[in-house]
Design goal:
By secondary structure, the protein is mainly alpha-helical. The protein has three helices and no strands.
Length: 90
């Protein structure tokens, strides 16, 4: 999956993260994900990394600190979208 850094969804994520003092690193990834289906239908969507390690192996793990930080960023994305798209996306 490769979503342009100029896309609205990436700008939204970067803006929300900046409000929390975080820097977003973007990268293209291979493999299947639900975001591919949405993007193919014209609905901008991007995956957010959660800090998982040894992904899709029997030793997969996630630090709780990273999981909580991902949840905070997700909540801030929702807040930022609500503030910047005040009733304009009907």
């Amino acid at each position: 999956m490769d979503v342009s850094n100029d896309s609205d969804v990436v700008k939204l994520v970067v803006g929300a993260a900046a409000r929390l003092g975080k820097i977003v690193k973007t990268l293209a990834s291979g493999g299947g994900c639900d975001a591919n289906v949405f993007n193919q239908k014209g609905i901008q969507c991007a995956n957010l990394g959660t800090g998982m390690r040894a992904t899709h192996t029997v030793k997969e793990w996630l630090d709780l600190k990273d999981m909580y930080e991902s949840a905070e960023i997700t909540l801030e994305i929702l807040r930022f979208h609500a503030e910047t798209h005040n009733n304009t996306d009907k």
